[in-house]
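Quick review question:
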């Protein structure tokens, strides 16, 4: 029976490799490790604003092929933490290649990792990231009551009257036992999962190639072993099935009440774990990293076109061949070559400008974090990533769209001159204000952002900006094909600025009255003539 279960599990794991997960995602729990982690040594922690702009949650659901909740939390953190160097890439790639090519090895590792796929596993990170429950000042009373129970049991054969002492202590202990149940429930899941984590880590560490991740992990595993026996009490809260188990559980519960085992062991374990946070995190990170690498191997097998990027440490360039947005089915691919310059995109609505900007941002993120880009080939800079794509009014704080955009772009300006390369992604800069000021302020801001080895990708409907920025920005555009009765988009990136204006023609195709179309055309021609005269 056990053999059949293992065989079935292996078949399921093998069939799911390279495929999307078919499960719900609890981001509140997935983010728990990331939210509490120290990111001071990283180049950048992606902001919630940038993640919202780039549809990060949807991206994560596509990228995540992990087998454990620990791996899921670790991968989420990895994707939001831009590293300052590439020191682990060689070993990571070696292991990813082995996971992709050696199915027997991978299936063994995956089978172990699935043991950490319970919801309670999400809370292991709290054991080394969050504060513990402190002992109440009157905790010595419980020690005294426990000692009294032990002494009474030992002396009972010599003095039967001590049974009354035991009954009295037992009644008092019931109150403390029930008080501690709430405390126990807060930690029973995470601590019992910590025991499973220790066993899984121990198994994974038997493989010589995985030992390279942390050669001294044995010391950290031993630390968890030191408190293992005390933690076994947390495994006794399992489901009860059958009359015999009910009787056994009841007897055990009476013993725990009589000697106050649960509160004494709980606070004892917490005290020891509090001094071993670093070791617990090392074991957690080891298992999480292994699972994340399996996930990356699965992602690469599943994605039809992907590549390992060339990461440019000393110059700012983005070169992409057949680059695409991974969340768009059958996405049109594009090529881009940017050397020490920024990019200004023009084009009508729905032509592909914003999608392309998002594709650039996503590929730089995945390239820097999981060494994987969705393109035939890709060269990217090591840069911080900032965006102003999806902006809305903040009615709760009485902030208009324009004011929100002003604050977002001010943050970009502050980061632009800090000495580290940045990638700035903007969609329709200052579209919340009037034309003259929008163009004037937009030109000044975009010129400023493009300095100091920064790269800017910005879209605009303002053709005037293409003339003002042609010396600082590479000009590209997206265009549509307008026929008598339809508008078709090819979503192909083209060099130069947009020359055809089809907005009024699109109104005509969609049945706008003739008098509106005629007046709009006449006004457009008059404005063009005035512009020529002014120049």
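Suggested answer, residue by residue:
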């Amino acid at each position: 029976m056990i053999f059949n279960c293992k065989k079935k599990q292996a078949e399921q794991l093998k069939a799911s490799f390279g495929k999307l997960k078919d499960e719900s995602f609890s981001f509140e729990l997935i983010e728990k490790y990331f939210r509490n982690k120290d990111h001071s040594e990283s180049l950048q922690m992606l902001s919630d604003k940038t993640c919202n702009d780039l549809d990060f949650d949807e991206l994560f659901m596509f990228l995540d092929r992990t087998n454990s909740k620990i791996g899921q939390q670790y991968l989420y953190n990895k994707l939001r933490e831009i590293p300052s160097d590439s020191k682990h890439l060689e070993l990571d790639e070696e292991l990813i290649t082995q996971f992709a090519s050696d199915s027997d090895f991978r299936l063994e590792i995956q089978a172990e990792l699935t043991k950490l796929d319970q919801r309670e596993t999400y809370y292991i990170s709290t054991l080394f990231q969050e504060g513990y429950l402190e002992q109440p000042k009157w905790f010595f009373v419980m020690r005294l009551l426990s000692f009294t129970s032990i002494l009474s049991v030992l002396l009972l054969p010599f003095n039967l009257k001590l049974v009354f002492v035991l009954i009295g202590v037992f009644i008092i202990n019931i109150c403390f036992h029930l008080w501690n149940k709430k405390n126990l429930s807060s930690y029973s899941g995470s601590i019992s999962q910590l025991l499973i984590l220790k066993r899984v880590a121990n198994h994974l560490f038997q493989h010589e190639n995985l030992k390279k991740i942390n050669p001294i992990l044995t010391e950290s595993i031993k630390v968890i072993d030191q408190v293992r026996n005390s933690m076994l009490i947390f495994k006794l809260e399992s489901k009860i099935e059958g009359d015999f188990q009910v009787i056994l559980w009841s007897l055990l519960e009476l013993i725990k009440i009589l000697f106050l085992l649960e509160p004494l062991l709980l606070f004892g374990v917490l005290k020891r774990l509090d001094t071993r946070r670093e070791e617990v995190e090392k074991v957690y990170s080891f298992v999480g990293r292994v699972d994340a690498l399996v996930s990356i191997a699965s992602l690469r097998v599943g994605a039809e076109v992907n590549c390992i990027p060339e990461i440019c440490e000393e110059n700012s360039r983005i070169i992409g061949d057949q680059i695409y947005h991974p969340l768009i089915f059958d996405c049109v691919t594009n090529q881009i070559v940017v050397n020490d310059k920024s990019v200004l995109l023009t084009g009508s609505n729905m032509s592909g400008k914003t999608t392309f900007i998002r594709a650039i941002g996503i590929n730089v993120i995945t390239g820097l974090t999981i060494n994987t880009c969705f393109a035939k080939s890709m060269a990217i800079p090591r840069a911080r990533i900032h965006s102003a794509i999806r902006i809305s009014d903040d009615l709760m704080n009485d902030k208009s769209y324009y004011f929100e955009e002003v604050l977002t772009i001010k943050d970009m300006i502050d980061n632009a001159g800090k000495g580290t390369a940045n990638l700035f992604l903007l969609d329709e800069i200052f579209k919340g204000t009037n034309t003259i000021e929008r163009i004037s302020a937009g030109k000044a801001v975009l010129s400023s952002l493009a300095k100091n080895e920064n790269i800017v990708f910005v879209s605009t409907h303002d053709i005037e900006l293409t003339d003002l920025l042609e010396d600082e920005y590479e000009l590209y555009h997206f265009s549509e094909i307008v026929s008598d009765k339809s508008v078709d988009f090819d979503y192909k990136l083209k060099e130069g600025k947009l020359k055809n204006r089809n907005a009024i023609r699109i109104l005509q195709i969609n049945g706008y009255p003739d008098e509106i179309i005629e007046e709009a055309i006449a006004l457009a021609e008059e404005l063009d003539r005035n512009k020529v005269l002014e120049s």
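Why it works: Residues 2-127+284-302 form one domain. The mean pLDDT is 87.
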